[in-house]
Amino acid sequence: MSTLTIRLPDDKHNRLKALAESRQISVNRLVDELATVALANFDARNRFEARAAKGNVKKALSILDRLGYEGSE
């Protein structure tokens, strides 16, 4: 496991401490959870963009037209 030192303004640190206390977890655990969410979002976006790059726009619009989607034109 790695140790990471970050610099935060005092007010932000105090708010993070208050948030952690309200969840009854440590600031360390809170930051770990927030990092996990950020990385999951990053991975999902990368997967989506990779799949979108392989997509066929004309075929997708045709499917939307058949479904009656009005924004497909």
Describe the structure in your own words.
With 73 residues, the protein is mostly helical. It has one domain. It has helices spanning 10-23, 27-53, 57-67. 0% of the residues are buried.
Compile the SSE list and pairings.
Elements: H1 10-23, H2 27-53, H3 57-67
What characteristics describe this protein?
73 residues; 0% strand
Helix content: over 70%
Q: What is the number of beta strands?
A: 0
SS element count, helices: 3
**Ends distance:** 51 Å
In terms of DSSP E residues, the strand content is under 5%
For the biggest sheet, the summary is: none
Element string (H = helix, E = strand) = HHH
**Unreliable runs:** none
How many structurally independent domains? 1
Q: Which structural category do the helix and sheet elements fall into?
A: mainly alpha
Mean pLDDT, all residues:
92
The gross shape turns out to be: elongated
Task: Kindly provide the radius of gyration, computed on alpha-carbon positions and rounded to a whole number of angstroms.
Answer: 21 Å
Short description:
The chain has 73 residues and is mostly helical.
